[in-house]
Each structure stands twice: as structure tokens, then as C-alpha cells.
Amino acid sequence: MTDPKNGLGKRSVLLPGALCSAIFGATAVWFAVLSQPSFAATSCSFSSVTQVSFGIYDVFSALPNNNGVGSITIFCESGGGPSFVVTLSAGQSNSYASRVMMSGGNRLNYNLYTSAARTVIWGDGTGGSNVMTTAKHATTTLSIFGQIPADQDANIGVYTDAIIATVNF
Q1: 108 in a domain, yes or no?
Q2: pLDDT for res 128
Q3: Each residue of 135-166: pLDDT tens digit?
Q4: Cα separation, 133 vs 167, whole angstroms
Q5: Quick check: 84 and 133 in contact, CB under 8 A?
Q6: Residue 33 sits in a domain of what CATH number?
Q7: Is 56 contained in some domain?
Q8: pLDDT in tens, 35-47
Q9: pTM value surpassing 0.85
Q10: What is the rounded CA–CA span in Å between residue 43 and residue 20?
Q11: Is the pLDDT confidence value at 59 over 80?
Q12: What range defines the domain where residue 73 resides?
């Protein structure tokens, strides 16, 4: 698909989401991979997507849940410049300040980061977020680091969010 504003192409995939459990019950987030048609000018593909899995969220812990780690593997064969920009959507919160998983009307705040230090939010470059890059003619695996902040009074339930990863070329 081509962006009409700047003529650049995009390829997107719906990421596997955060698997998160409240201390009193199991919660899970599952996402499907969306397949896009091939493009003649540029060839990029998502060859692997691993969901972010938080395990158990302990509502009584004073520490954030930093167990969430996932990844996407991208291969860009041709087109564009020497590298491609990879963005993540804000999900249903529509904000990079704090993403949110929902279970019915219940919310559980979390975010996704570019490194294990969990200091730089991975987004689209707006709202205080940064993007990641991948090289042309290379298979690149980018890790996604999740965090659920401590001290959230979450109800038992299945909390979900949908995040879309996009390669801009």
C-alpha cells in the first residue's frame, strides 16, 4: 500500500498482544497476523511474530510487571533507502503515554518499549514515542519489551489490546 501524502509504502501486521493474568484469575490476549499482498517496488515481510507474554499480574506487588517480552522478525529485500522505519500503534488507548488492555469495562495500563531498560516507548515517533529501524537486505528481529505498572487495582478477567506493527519504506 502507498501513503498518498509522501508516496512511501507500508506493510503492517497485527502483533500478538500481551498475555497478562491478574492474581485471582487468568487473562489472555491473542492477536492474529494479517497478511498483506506483495509489492513490486519493495519487498518486506514479517516472517515471525511472538506475542508479548506478561504471565501473572500481581495486584499487590509494589514492583511493575516487566515479564512481557515479544518480538517481530522482518525481512526487507529491496526498495526504499538503506533502512526502514518500524512503528507500533497506540492500540485502543489511542495514546503512547499509556497503552491500555481492556476486559469488558475494566482497564489495565501497560506500555511497550524499545529495550529491556523500558525507558523509551516504542510507537510512531509522536506523543513521546520512538520508532525502530531495520536494514535492507537483512532479516532483523526486533524485541518488544512490555511493562505493566504496579499498584493497579485490576479486576479478574481477560485483558486485551490490539497493536499493529508497520514497516514504512
Answers
A1: yes
A2: 95
A3: 888 889 999 999 999 999 988 887 888 898 98
A4: 9
A5: yes
A6: 2.60.40.1090
A7: yes
A8: 344 444 557 788 8
A9: no
A10: 34
A11: yes
A12: 10-168
Query: What residues contact 164, with CB distance under 8 A and at least 6 apart?
Result: 12, 13, 14, 15, 34, 88, 89
Chain Cα centroid distance, residue 97: 14
Question: What residues have CB less than 8 Å from 15, skipping those under 6 apart?
Answer: 31, 49, 51, 52, 70, 72, 88, 144, 162, 163, 164, 165
Residue 108 grid coordinates: 489495565
126 φ, ψ (degrees, to nearest 5): -110, 165
Q: Which amino acid is at 22?
A: A
Q: Is residue 74 assigned to a domain?
A: yes
Residue 22 lies in a domain: yes
* Local structure of residue 65 (DSSP, 8 states): B
Instruction: Give the separation between CA 77 and CA 89, rounded to whole angstroms.
Output: 24
Average pLDDT, whole number, for the chain? 77
Domain count within the chain: 1
Residue-by-residue DSSP string for 115-167: STT--SBBSSSSTT-B-EEEETTEEEEEEEEEEB-S---PPSS--B---EEEE
Q: How far, rounded to the nearest angstrom, does the alpha carbon of residue 114 sit from its chain's CA centroid?
A: 10
> Is the per-residue pLDDT at 19 higher than 80?
no
β-bridge pairing 99-103 and 132-135: unpaired
